[in-house]
Amino acid sequence: MKINARKTSKTTGRGPRALIALPVLTIVLIFFLASLYSVESEADFISPGAEDQSMVGKEFREFDFLLVVSSENSAGKDINIKNSQQEMTEVNRFEPGAFENPDNCIRCHRSIYEQWSRSKHQYAWVDEFYQPDYLKASRETEGFTDVFCGECHAPAAVRTGQLPPPDGSLFDDTSMRGIFCDYCHTVKEIVEPLNVMTVSDPGRVKRGPRADGRAPHGVEYSKIHTDSIFCGACHNVRHPLSGAVIIDTYDDWKEGPYADKGIRCQDCHMTPGPGVEKNPGKSSSMGQEREHVATHYFHGGSVFFQQRAGNEKEAGLARQLLEAAAELELEYTADESGIEILARVKNVGAGHKIPTGVTYIRKMWLEVTVVDDSGRTVFESGHVVEGNHVHPETVFYRKVFRDAQGNLTPKSWLAQEIAYDRRIPAKGADEQVFKILRDRLGNGKHHATVRLMYRSMSQDLADNLGIEGLEVPGIEMANARLTFDY
Fold first, then answer.
1. Domain boundaries, position 444
2. What is the pLDDT of residues 30-66, one digit of tens each?
3. Buried/exposed code over 206-215 (b: 16+ C-beta within 10 A; e: otherwise)
4. Are residues 64 and 89 in contact, defined by beta-carbon separation less than 8 angstroms?
5. Do 463 and 480 belong to one domain?
6. What residues of the chain score a pLDDT lower than 50?
7. Which of 71, 95, 139, 205 is the most buried (most CB within 10 A)?
């Protein structure tokens, strides 16, 4: 027999309701991490030998550059950057103080400033989860990752010569503010939506989606600020040596159904909540009333981070996106050997794959519990075990890398290729089957509960950050239930 279970996931059906990533738009935590874990156990990977490790520093030293000058696009074709590496470096080299401190913006743009000040963009450099691994990656790659990672998390510091060194000892207050107002609103060109290939032009002219604003500075309309390509400059990352795809949020969107409909990253991540919504109001105290003013929360799936930061509103927005991203459907079949439960996970609200961003550390999985009428548990899968780890036999939705020696590795800076990628594309679905043998079942009714769970990072990673008592919670994205007789 086959029964469709009633869905209990919280969805509204109002269009794309994208997750995070990279903020991020969940910003990414760190591209090259020295100790990230793609699974719940480090034992799942074979570590490179000492000889392999000795080659890593040599290879990175030989390719120590600021900007990638060639790579591949989503179609696999070579990209020839029109400017040489040296020209790009010189174009983006400015004196300290060239970028305005975001505190200068608060007088006219208070509401937007307050939203940004609690966003992952503002925390990009000082993020307590990012810093330990960034410094470790720097040590293990002899400084190669300083700029490559730093240009996304502290772009002004790189472009004003304050990074390296990686400890931030040369940073002024503006550079400490992560991804801030003047960095974004003085970008004049996206060379390619990849590896922070932007051209900056700091000065009195601020660029954005309109040209009719009244302001004490120049206002210039910028088409790229209204396009997802602006987001793709940071939310698309390729390994600069191997070309391995590390982060592909923009490519996911571009190749998916929402791009075809003209629904942009900004329509989900710069609106008041899940779905494409309007936010009427003024963008500045002296501005005119607008039908929509883009919000600057840049909310993604970072519930845990925002809760630790004490930002309950932002944590709530992140939770809404997670709950709106997916739906669960359950079916079952019975025979003399037992019961099979089919769980179908549908990406109904994210404009990209779920999960997205740094998916080699993020966790999405199914937690299954089946009890009989007396409340006795007859089957479970995907539950949390000792040490707040998810059971190691759980199937995770994630990405895993392979290194040059063919070993699986959680270290993105060793990535030569993708070894495993089980994620769910926009408007796509994935199915898992759970078998319960007859000898585990009693007679009569049984009740199954399946929950789609999410963690922004594994507990293994958390254990290695040096933050005492750090336990990563599982966030429920959706759930479904069914009852069957046997």
1. 324-485
2. 333 333 333 344 334 333 333 333 334 444 444 433 3
3. bbbbbeebee
4. no
5. yes
6. 1-85
7. 71
